[in-house]
Design brief:
heterodimer, A: mainly alpha, ABC transporter involved in vitamin B12 uptake, BtuC, two-stranded antiparallel sheet, 74% helix, 1% strand, B: alpha/beta, Rossmann fold, six-stranded mixed beta sheet, 9 helices, 12 strands, globular
Chain lengths: 325, 263
């Protein structure tokens, strides 16, 4: 218990530190302790929305990864490997290239159609990932791979069709927060916390699902309902992140594993901590992306992948059948 | 003799798509009974357990739990009456033994709050399965036998009065086979539990089961007391094996010595 409390303290320390760095560092030097009117504008209109965007997107991505991994009892599941990100990308690209607009005023066309795309991908993965009424790990991952490839090919077709929008599309898919503003940030700030709460609310059911669908059913869990709630939630988080920041890989894969190593596998603790650490990680990555090649910016997706790929390969090598792979 | 019937399986048939795997199964289970489901591989034992559990829907017939159709209970209410240990141990991530066994309390819990009796039920389940020494270890790091004990402990922590067990002793050595089945038998004798278990070891069936349902190709060969149901003829018929059946002079229990496949 003491160890857990200490870990929480360390986590909040890193969150505060990363936020401080993100607000302090940028192409223009400002001091947070003596703000001129110009500095105030930079801080409030550029850096704060950018830091908050990266926090909620990172937290949301990490949370969606933890949910997918728990739901399918597989350490390698995340929105990328399951093809959900590709679905969201296809929806967003279609909205950008074909000019689709959202029927709901509160969402942009990109947000709305990226959610539809992620739901479409999720439905396909669910359909092909089941056998005899239950999910099969291999079927799920293979279905995700197939759906991801199919949707990525369709995105490529859209890119060829795109003329004026090509630059915007490429920029979008590289992932990043360089164009973050309050207009793009509000969605992440308002909707992601709701998702975090829902995820936390059903965490005990997700724990029971770790025992397998049949055992969870026999324990009184309405498995179909819980699977549907969590899958839609994770797809929603993915589409929010794609529409706010494009494609950012591996946050959903590595952060939940790091949290499990310290805090254990109980989702009542795992989910909120994963959210906080994922957000902190992406704030830091975005800050690195801003400064490492200044005045140019690296896409944040490149920075997360530079961290993520080695960890991913390490996990793959280390896995010794504990997760049924 | 009147006895409190907790489970009635009435004329149940089941098919996976077009393949009929269970035909006209009927039996009833009284409170405190220990019932063994016996039969060769593919005879429908696990399917029958899943139908009783309510995860498979029979094509014909009905399962009644405490006099009501099993599917009429809301999931949590059903789980308070009936728990299940599956054939293949599964826990996707490294929960500790204590955490995993505590999941058995799910049907009794209110959200964000422990239920009355949680701690006591978990402790007793760990004690009955001799899992206390490794309660802080990760489930994924345990041996096959230890995992099996923990999964049984989780089902016991559910404190339901009907336990459905699919090959509960499959990973256990001789000592723990006897220890686990003795513990379950004691719970049955005290009227605290009723057990329906798929068992492959005929001698364990003889030692612990009150009654046996012998299945072959999804059809009931016989249902009744061990000594009445399990004889050379029925074993040859169900398993296609020549089995010598003798009686232990001390306990009076029958025991089985397989001799050769029947041609």
């Amino acid at each position: 218990m003491r160890r857990i409390s200490l870990s929480w303290l360390i986590l909040f320390f890193f969150f505060s530190l990363s936020l401080f760095l993100a607000l302090s560092i940028g192409p223009v030097k400002i001091s947070l302790f003596a703000l001129s009117p110009r500095d105030q504008t930079i801080l409030l209109n550029l850096r704060l929305p950018r830091a908050l965007s990266s926090f909620f997107v990172g937290g949301g991505l990490a949370l969606s990864g933890a949910v997918f991994q728990g739901l399918f009892r597989n350490p390698l599941a995340d929105s990328y490997l399951l093809g959900i990100s590709s679905g969201a990308s296809l929806g967003a690209a279609a909205a950008l290239v074909l000019g689709f607009t959202s029927p709901l005023a509160m969402f942009t066309g990109v947000s709305f159609f990226s959610f539809l795309g992620s739901l479409l991908a999720l439905s396909l993965v669910f359909y092909f990932g089941r056998r005899d009424g239950y999910f099969s790990v291999f079927r799920l991952l293979l279905s995700g791979l197939g759906v991801g490839l199919l949707f990525s090919s369709l995105v490529a077709v859209l890119m060829i069709m795109a003329e004026e929008e090509l630059r915007a599309l490429i920029f979008f898919f590289m992932g990043g927060f360089s164009s973050a503003s309050w207009e793009t940030t509000w969605m992440a700030i308002t909707l992601v916390p709701v998702c975090v709460w829902i995820a936390f609310y059903y965490a005990r059911e997700l724990n029971v699902l770790l025992l397998g669908e049949e055992t969870a059913l026999s324990s009184g869990v309405n498995t179909r309902r819980i699977q549907a709630i969590y899958a839609i939630l994770a797809a929603f988080l993915t589409s929010i992140s794609v529409s706010v920041a494009g494609l950012i890989g591996f946050v959903g894969l590595i952060i939940p594993h790091m949290v499990r190593m310290v805090f254990g596998a109980d989702h009542r603790i795992l989910l909120p901590v994963t959210f906080l650490l994922g957000g902190t990680f992406l704030i830091l990555c975005d800050t690195i992306a801003k400064v490492v090649l200044a005045p140019s910016e690296l896409p944040v997706g490149v920075v997360t992948s530079l961290f993520g790929v080695p960890v991913f390969l390490y996990l793959l090598k280390k896995e010794r059948g504990e997760y049924g792979l | 003799m009147d006895r409190n019937i907790v489970l009635q399986v009435h004329n149940v048939s089941f098919a996976y798509e077009k393949a009929l795997v269970l035909k006209n199964i009927s039996f009833s289970v009284g409170q405190g009974d220990f019932i063994a489901l016996v039969g060769p591989n593919g005879s429908g034992k696990t399917t029958l357990l899943k139908i009783i559990l309510g995860t498979l829907i029979p094509r014909e017939g009905e399962i009644r739990l405490d006099g009501k159709p099993v599917l009429s209970y809301p999931p949590k209410e059903r789980a308070k009456k009936m728990s299940y240990v599956s054939q293949q141990p599964s826990a996707g991530f490294p929960l500790t033994v204590q955490e995993l066994v505590s999941l058995g309390r799910y049907p009794h819990e209110e959200r964000f709050r422990q239920a009355a009796g949680d701690t006591q039920a978990i402790e007793e389940a760990l004690r009955l399965t001799d899992s206390l020494p490794f309660r802080e270890r990760k489930f994924t790091a345990l041996s096959g036998g230890e995992k099996q004990k923990v999964l049984i402990a989780r089902a016991l922590a559910q404190t339901s009065y009907l336990l459905l067990l699919d090959e509960p002793t499959v990973h256990l050595d001789l000592y723990f086979q006897l220890q686990i089945l003795n513990g379950l038998k004691t719970l049955c004798s005290e009227g605290r539990s009723t057990v329906v278990a798929v068992l492959h070891d005929l001698n364990l069936v003889s030692l612990f089961a009150d009654e046996v349902l012998l299945l072959k190709s999804g059809e009931p060969v016989a249902f009744g007391k061990v000594a009445e149901v399990m004889n050379e003829g029925s074993m040859r018929d169900a398993f296609a094996v020549e089995v010598a059946v003798s009686r232990d002079s001390q306990s009076g229990a029958v025991y089985f010595l397989p001799r050769r496949p029947h041609r």
